[in-house]
Amino acid sequence: MLQYQTIPVTPFQQNCSLVWCDQTMDAAVIDPGGDLDVLLAAVKKLGLNLKAIWLTHAHIDHAGGTGELAERLQLPIIGPHEGDQFWIDGLPQQSAMFGFPPAKAFTPTRWLHDGDTVSIGNEALNVRHCPGHTPGHVVFHAPQAKRAFVGDVLFAGSIGRTDFPQGNHQQLIDSITQRLWPMGDDTVFIPGHGPESTFGQERRSNPFVGGT
After folding, report:
1. Does the residue 212 lie in any domain?
2. Which ranges carry the Metallo-beta-lactamase domain (predicted)?
3. Domain assignment of residue 211, yes or no
């Protein structure tokens, strides 16, 4: 079975997730924005074999620790979609702007596209391209576990901001209604910030996309 543990990192309290296959204990880390020593301590405590970095998008609080972690452990960087290249290139400036430790720009080992899959151990997750918050944002869906790691597309009671460069409000709404809702009302999603919720709960009550 797919297992996961969410660890808030950086002053922005970004939900970084360790995901692993409990048969092989091979793991990936989703959105290592910072606090790498905290993340690596959790990896050690859980007895995981960290194999890859998966990125939903390239904002500093999600991707700030990626370059250093990849270099330190020789890990492949998987994702996001090419649309976020300009955010990756700007990571050093983002880190200075928001008072984060210096962040390295990097080139992902593999870009992700809608319909791709990523795997860890014996577990596979589906990739959906969900632009709007950023143009290259992707989401990782594990139907076997009824879980989705959605970055900053959707939150409990809210949605991602679209006032950043190349953000697009209508694209974001379309991503949520056309890409996330079909995953099922009973799917639990892990957002980039704040508590988990279900797509069904958000369809019913989220003031930004409720009733869609």
Report:
1. no
2. 13-193
3. no
Question: For the chain, what is the mean pLDDT?
Answer: 97
- Domain containing 15 — which CATH number? 3.60.15.10
Across the range 161-180, mean pLDDT stands at: 97
Residue 84 is given by DSSP the state G
Does residue 146 contact residue 161 with C-beta atoms inside 8 Å? no
Q: What is the pLDDT confidence band of residue 210, given thresholds at 50, 70 and 90?
A: confident
Residue 211 has pLDDT above 80, yes or no: no
The Cα 91–Cα 32 span in angstroms is: 13
Q: What residue numbers bound the domain in which 117 lies?
A: 2-205
Residue whose structure tokens are 């957002």: 191
Judge whether 91 lies within some domain: yes
Count of structural domains, the chain: 1
Residue pLDDT, tens place only, 80-95: 999 999 999 999 999 9
